[in-house]
Amino acid sequence: MLWTEPAGVTPGKTRGSTHFSLIRFNETAYSEIRRFIVISNKGQYSQCIPIQTYRGQGTRKHGIVVEDHSLIYTGDEDDEPPELLPGERITKQPLRVEPTGSETLESASRVNFGKVYTVEHNVKVLDIGVVCPQHIYLLVNYFTDALTSV
């Protein structure tokens, strides 16, 4: 989906992108296509966790809580997950997404179980696929662990 959020105090310093807009009150917003896993459908909105590549850095990006992340990939049952990036220390098992069309996730895609976003149902979205049934228990356990750990 198209995701827009405040750009922060120093726009452009951390994102290296041209996806900035000047909005009301002379503030800057940042927009990008963002991918999510729907955790809970609440009727008018869903609670979701983000999938990001962190500009191709994976969990090597400074400030990332590595323990809250797992590799996530699109593929068939026989497909192997992509390799971790050199220097990554992810310990969680990868999650496989069964694609519903031709969209795929980049090999540096990581799911962050520690952040929950609310996505309203009145926005345009593109269905990429579903977490394979064999990995649902991992999704639930990793999400629960991230939200209850101190």
UniProtKB/TrEMBL annotation:
<feature type="domain" description="DUF6590">
    <location>
        <begin position="1"/>
        <end position="138"/>
    </location>
</feature>
<dbReference type="InterPro" id="IPR046497">
    <property type="entry name" value="DUF6590"/>
</dbReference>
<protein>
    <recommendedName>
        <fullName>DUF6590 domain-containing protein</fullName>
    </recommendedName>
</protein>
<dbReference type="Pfam" id="PF20233">
    <property type="entry name" value="DUF6590"/>
</dbReference>
